[in-house]
Amino acid sequence: MLSRRIAVVRPLSRAIQPTLTRYQVRRLSNADVEDPNMNGGYINPPREKRQFRDPYGDWWDKQERRNFGEPVHEDNDELAMFSTYEYTHVSPGKAALQLGLFVAAVFGLAGVVSMFYPDTPAVPREFPGGLETELGGPNAVRARKAGDDL
Q1: What are phi and psi of 96, to 5 degrees?
Q2: In sequence order, what are the residues at sequence separation of 6 or more whose Cβ sits closer than 8 angstroms to the Cβ of residue 50?
């Protein structure tokens, strides 16, 4: 039925131990000491978002606003044109003020409408005896009877 190899119980520790070869052992070299960013000696250009570069400049790649052969920053995915746009035309204080004014205007308009909104023009209808027999007898929920509270 079951193969004897499957049925044999082996210690789990022997199966989990990784074996390292001499090619996998990492050695500290001078390049790692001189380059704390660990990017293999690649010279990073200054961290500048491409959105802030001159859109009318003479770029080799007009869409990404970069020239041919220009080194790419290691965080290019964050600095490229297709990354998240940085909104710089409104300061956080001015945005909070505008949001506060909007909320105040909405609540102010709701308050004015509630002050001048007319009440219900009709009065609830009353029935003689509360229609007790028509609605099912003495234990049934009765309709409004004359003299009941609103």
Answers
A1: -65, -40
A2: 64, 65, 66, 79, 80, 81
Output the pLDDT for position 10: 61
Structure confidence at residue 44 (pLDDT): 81
Sequence-distant (≥ 6) Cβ neighbours of residue 59 within 8 angstroms: 53, 65, 66, 67
Report whether pLDDT(127) > 80: no
Please state, in angstroms and rounded to a whole number, the distance separating the CA atoms of residues 141 and 110. Answer: 37
Of the chain, the percentage scoring pLDDT greater than 70 comes to: 67
Q: How far is residue 133's CA from residue 47's CA, in Å, rounded to a whole number?
A: 85
Write down how long the chain is: 150
How far apart CA 52 and CA 80 sit, in angstroms, is 10
